[in-house]
Each structure stands twice: as C-alpha cells, then as structure tokens.
Specification:
By secondary structure, the protein is an alpha+beta fold. It contains two helices and three strands. The protein has one domain (15-68). It has a three-stranded antiparallel β-sheet, with no helix packed on it. The longest helix is centred in the last third of the chain and has 10 residues, at 59-68. The chain starts with 14 loop residues before the first strand and ends with a helix.
C-alpha cells in the first residue's frame, strides 16, 4: 500500500521515516529501559517531525536494554 505525505508546515511531498525507542516513567526511567517505540516521520525540506506510537517493545529487548544500559 503506497501512502502519500504532505508536510502540514511547508507543503513538501517528501518524508523520511525512522524508528525510535524511549523510556516511560518510574522504574523504566530509573533503569533506562526503553519500553516504548514510535515511528518518526520527518519532512525532508523543513524537518517537521510527527511521532506515531507503534506499541511497546518486547520483553527480550527490555532485558537487553537493562543489561547493556
């Protein structure tokens, strides 16, 4: 399925997508366990970025984060 993109700030039609992971609050923040994942879509012209939640990371990734910090 092909999706179209139009930047809401500058009207550009091109974007780049990437994945990021972040910590939550409390225990996960204290131990730097990145248990939330998002897709970041950024305009190639002005850099405006929108984040879309893709779900929580799996347990294996959380353990690896904790061990490698």
């Amino acid at each position: 399925m092909k999706q179209t993109y139009t930047c809401p700030k500058c009207g550009n039609k091109k974007a780049e997508a990437d994945k990021i992971r972040t910590t939550g609050a409390g225990f996960t923040r204290y131990f730097n366990i990145q248990n939330r994942s998002f897709t970041a879509v950024s305009c190639t012209k002005c850099g405006y970025t929108e984040l879309y939640r893709t779900g929580k990371s799996g347990g294996g990734k959380n353990v690896l984060d904790f061990l490698t910090n």
